[in-house]
Amino acid sequence: MDRLRIGDERRSVLDFLAREMEQIWSNFDQPREKEPEITSELKSLLATRLPEDPSEITDVLGSSVDVLEASIAQSRPRFLAYIGSSGLEVGAIADFLASSYDINQAVDSRAATMLEKQTAQWVGEFIGYSNAIGYFTSGGMVSNLTALATARSIALPNSRTSGIDREVAIYSSAEAHYSILRAVEVLGIGTDAVRSIPIDDHHRMRVEILRERIDEDLARGVTPIAIVATCGTTLTGAVDPISDIANVANEKGIWLHVDGAYGAPAAGTSKAPLFKGLNLADSVTIDAHKWLFVPKACSLVLMKDHEGLAKTFSHHEAYMPHIFGDYNPVDLTLEYSRPLRALKLWIAFKTHGADAFRKAIKKNIELAELTYEIASKRSDFRTLPHAPDLSIVPIQYQSEKHPDASKLNALLCERIIEDGRFYISTAQINGETWLRPCYTNFRTTESDVKALFEVVEELAHSL
User: Fold this and answer.
1) What is the pLDDT of residue 13?
2) In a domain, 26, yes or no
3) What Rg value do the Cα atoms of the chain yield, rounded?
């Protein structure tokens, strides 16, 4: 190997990868019966010191595959925990290409910059957020932070130089994602400024209480910075009433941010009525690595124009060229060095077409509805009062032998993970522990849903 080049071995390395990837992708199409043990050989490999001498590259790649095979992969069809990714095949190829070119989106990158702009517009079109501009980030945390930083700059124009010089408030539902609190902390606003608005029996923000809290704050001289509506809460998949919230935001002159990191892609399906008013938002977060199926990391924040972003992030650095006085992407984003994250989604839309994504999302929703239907008909399962809005469906196993349902389901979740046929997580809802399957993988099928109930019942009887 010639220094840091693969050189003459390039063809053999690519042939090796082609064989391995064909097998890996084929394996992802079917569930595996258990998670493999981490062998003593693998433990030894992962305890070695910094290598000073070279190794055969195909041996190293083979060891890498061994590590990955012994890891929790969200691409597998029975990974139902958290809000998972799917590792879309063309997205993985796109990452390989993007990493090879190693384009930096901090400055204008010619065609790559045009591609990012186009892809953001496509996503806006997909979800019904017209005339969108947007930038790709590392995740929903950074996208939400970007949106709230922009809202802060609009509400407090001098905040970049003077900081927070008055009492402020940000409004979100009681089940908003924790990234909202983290963003408020990072921005120096402080979590005391967050007004947690109660939810209704559908787990949606109660708009009448939102209005009351805003009026109370305004009467005390508090400056509202933003209202955060959630499109698909992490616990139950609930969608806040965006249109009603947008009316309040417009009436009070407050920035409306929609955290649609998980749920916003469903706005492009028959579930669109749930998202009425989305187009009225000042900013929207979407994690394409969740329900648009591409590999992590691929989030984006959408807005209607560049003005707020420029007020929040722009600098005129001596070492950054500003051709014709235009902004560089770095003047409009939180991050400086940014990889071409948009490429994986651009290739995905071009290869499969938008309708394939709509159908895959619809199928995930149908799996959640099937889960709810099966659990509702069984005496040994409990469901929430309302069918799922999207693809998250909490269920709770019940047993006369175990009167403490929360303790039972927490233990049951541990056993399911130990068993290895499924990977699932729990949710704390109204102080109780529930099992919380979440369907965001295009590979998951009805047979997986039915198998989940079989596995739960089997393991529950062993407790």
Assistant:
1) 96
2) no
3) 24
Rounded to whole angstroms, the Cα distance separating 120 from 405 reads 45
SS3 annotation, 223-251: EEEEEEEEECCCCCCCECCHHHHHHHHHH
With 60 as the cut, is the pLDDT of residue 1 above it? no
CATH of the domain at 220: 3.40.640.10
d(CA 164, CA 161): 9
The residue among 352, 374, 402 that closes a domain is 352
Helices 446-461 and 354-377 cross at an angle (nearest 10°) of 30
Confidence band for 316, pLDDT divided at 50, 70 and 90: low
Range of the domain at 414: 355-461
- CA distance linking residue 443 with residue 366, whole number of Å: 13
In a domain, 228, yes or no: yes
CA distance 139 to 118: 19
Identify the CA nearest to 126 among candidates 348, 374, 444, 282: 348
Label residue 328 by pLDDT band (50, 70, 90).
Answer: confident
User: Within this chain, do residues 447 and 376 fall inside the same structural domain, yes or no?
Assistant: yes
320 or 32, which is more confident: 32
